[in-house]
Amino acid sequence: MPINVDAVVVSNDRLSANYNIVKLAAPAIAAQCLPGQFVMVKRGFDTDPLLRRPFSVFEVLRDRRNQVVGLSLLNKHVGVMTRAIFEVQPGDRIQCLGPLGNPFSMVDPPSEAWMVAGGVGLAPFVTLAPTLRARRSPVTLFYGGRTAADLFHLDFFEGLGVSVVLTTEDGSQGEGGRVTAPLERALKAFPSNAPLMIYACGPTPMMRAVAQLGNRYHRPTEVSLEPVMGCGLGGCYSCVVRLRRDNGAGSFVRSCLDGPVFRGDQILWDELFH
Question: Model-level pTM?
Answer without folding.
Answer: 0.94
